[in-house]
Amino acid sequence: MTVITRWDPFREFTTLQDRMNRLFRESQGDGREEALTTTTFAPPVDVYEDEHSVTLKIEVPGIEEKDIDVRVENNTLTVHGERKFEKEEKEENFRRVERQYGSFVRTFTLPNTVDPENIDAQYDKGVLKIRLAKKAEAKPKQIKINVGKSLESKENKGAGRVA
Fold this sequence. Notes:
By secondary structure, the chain is an alpha+beta fold.
């Protein structure tokens, strides 16, 4: 099975930096509004494969289609998006905020079996589905098995007999 791996060497550092910044802002009494809107996150992704394609399903609820960007460059698939904090809720007195806001970037190295010219993206009910079609030569081929005949006898039939 082909595996698509994501690679972001600075992701953990970015998360740590965001947490430290949030801690300092909260301790200094800065506005909570800014703390809510400057975080980054990584939406969960399911990746599965069949004989015709590799498919990614990315959960991005609350993000409008126009705020999502999908690109392929140098055999790397990049998905970038942003979940914006809703203005009308900024005046509310929050007791708890668990939803994450801000921008995200997910990158995936494409396997050699994928055709980078044949990629389809669909967005429905908060799920971005990206279908990466496989190249024709990468698809499995069915090989017929002949019973009771050896390869040698087949080759001899084609050679003909000289008497």
